[in-house]
Design the sequence.
């Protein structure tokens, strides 16, 4: 007998796909009071701009006719909350919700779709190489496969295929992805920065970061090398003194 996976309940609030804490508690088999407690704790720990754009407080009427607190969560707020929910069924529900968010965002994008200006230039794979590198960095930061992130890029720019992205839009696409990375780095504890040997990001995209790393390495090398030579001189002096003492 297979476990029943409820259909995700994603609705539009303020023009954005969202889900209520009540539905999350129902689908993940959690006590709603515990979910609200966790959301209040998370809301107090994240930066204010993230809290305001991803969590909304609301209420509902329970079976006794009393108003009870409830949260409205947008995509990133939902992902932050359910990050700690584990188990095979929980994973299936997360995936179902991610698919529902993607579908809702794509539907919104189709409704607002605009015709491409006649002056746009089709991009080539070489043109999109910096974008691929930055999406890979986004995936590394979010600890997910890059294929799960491209639908967000396509939906944001109202494209059926990323190959349809015009050259003129690539700077905006880079800014969009960088914004996603910056948002994750604000809420993840001590995000690990890529080393020079590990990074998949094109150097030209983040020259300042590499400059800082190189300067730090150079300064450390100078400090340690001076220390090393000072110790070598001390060892030589000590050896010389002991040799004279034996004579």
Sequence:
């Amino acid at each position: 007998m297979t476990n029943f996976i409820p259909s995700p309940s994603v609705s539009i609030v303020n023009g954005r796909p969202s889900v209520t804490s009540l539905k999350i508690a129902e689908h993940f088999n959690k006590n709603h009071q515990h979910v609200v407690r966790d959301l209040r704790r998370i809301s107090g720990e994240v930066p204010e701009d993230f809290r305001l754009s991803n969590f909304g407080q609301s209420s509902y009427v329970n079976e006794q006719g009393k108003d009870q607190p409830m949260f409205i969560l947008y995509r990133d707020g939902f992902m932050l909350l359910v990050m700690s929910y584990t188990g095979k069924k929980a994973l299936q529900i997360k995936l179902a919700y991610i698919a529902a968010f993607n579908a809702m965002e794509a539907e919104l994008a189709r409704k607002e779709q605009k015709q491409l200006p006649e002056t746009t230039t089709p991009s080539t794979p070489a043109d999109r190489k910096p974008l691929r590198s930055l999406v890979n960095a986004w995936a590394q930061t979010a600890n997910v496969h890059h294929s799960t992130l491209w639908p967000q890029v396509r939906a944001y720019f109202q494209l059926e295929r990323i190959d349809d992205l015009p050259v003129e839009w690539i700077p905006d696409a880079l800014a969009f992805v960088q914004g996603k990375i910056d948002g994750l780095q604000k809420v993840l504890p001590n995000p690990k920065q890529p080393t020079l040997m590990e990074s998949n990001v094109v150097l030209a995209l983040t020259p300042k970061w590499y400059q800082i790393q190189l300067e730090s390495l150079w300064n450390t090398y100078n400090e340690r090398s001076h220390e090393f030579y000072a110790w070598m001189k001390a060892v030589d002096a000590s050896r010389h003194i002991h040799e004279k003492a034996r004579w």
The mean pLDDT is 81. The first helix runs from residue 21 to 27. Residues 135 and 177 are 7 Å apart (CA to CA).
